[in-house]
């Protein structure tokens, strides 16, 4: 538990730098505060699923789970960026807003789902690993 606390402390000390770099890159790419806020708002959408998965499997919220939630938030924000860019391209091509949103979601659903599935499957060996997996303390 002590080693896990040390690892979490080291990770938390980097959060302000990580958040600042992320905001800077998002502002550089999107050039609009509203779009940045939308992308950041979607970061929390994976938390209910992560919490449910941990509860169903009976696993603790340790260091690896924390890394998984951070990676999940990154994936969700990346997928939001991809979808927003597609909607903007469709709007620039003359589509109505509703049509652009629906068509973009349909067009990007398969690539988003496949990359998300690949990332989830990549984390499965980590959860079963003696080295990386959560330990039960008695």
UniProtKB/TrEMBL annotation:
Which InterPro entries does this one have? Acrflvin-R
Q: A Gene Ontology CC term for this entry?
A: plasma membrane
Which Gene3D superfamilies does the UniProt record give? Answer: Multidrug efflux transporter AcrB transmembrane domain
Which stretch is the leader sequence?
none
A GO molecular function annotation here is:
xenobiotic transmembrane transporter activity
Q: Does the keyword Transcription regulation apply?
A: no
Transmembrane ranges, per UniProt, are 12-30, 37-55, 61-81, 112-132
Source taxon at top rank = Bacteria
Q: Keywords of this protein's UniProt record, alphabetized?
A: Membrane, Transmembrane, Transmembrane helix
**Quick check: keyword Acetylation in the entry?**
no
Q: Which Pfam families match?
A: ACR_tran
Supply the PANTHER family for this chain.
CATION EFFLUX SYSTEM PROTEIN, PTHR32063
- Its protein name is RND efflux system, inner membrane transporter
The organism encoding this protein is: uncultured Acetobacteraceae bacterium
